[in-house]
Design a protein that fits this description.
The chain has about 70 residues and is mostly beta strands. It has strands spanning about 1-5, 10, 15-25, 25-30, 35-40, 45, 50-55, 60-65. The protein has one domain (about 1-65): Sandwich (Jelly Rolls). The strands form 2 sheets. The protein has a 4-stranded antiparallel sheet with strand order 1-8-3-6, with no helix packed on it. A 4-stranded antiparallel sheet has the order 2-7-4-5, with no helix packed on it. It comes from Streptomyces brasiliensis.
């Protein structure tokens, strides 16, 4: 997935399990506990928690999403 400069996605929660790797650029990954800036090679696994994304300068992510269902 490629995101342009200034792109953001509000805090949300999905039922999928998402594995994301930053391929190019930088992206801010936010959860309730705070925000981390991720760069090339950084990975994040999201499973049933609230999170948000934003990028000041644009980025490219490799994302694998596995369908899920809350128990």
């Amino acid at each position: 997935m490629e995101f342009p400069p200034g792109w953001s996605y509000q805090l949300h929660c999905s039922e999928s399990v998402d594995f994301s790797t930053v391929v190019q650029g930088a992206v801010d990954f936010s959860v309730d506990e705070g925000t981390r800036t991720l760069g090339p090679g950084n990975c994040v696994l999201v499973a049933g928690t609230s999170y948000a994304w934003s990028t000041k300068h644009g980025c490219r992510l490799l994302v694998v999403m596995l369908g899920g269902q809350r128990a």
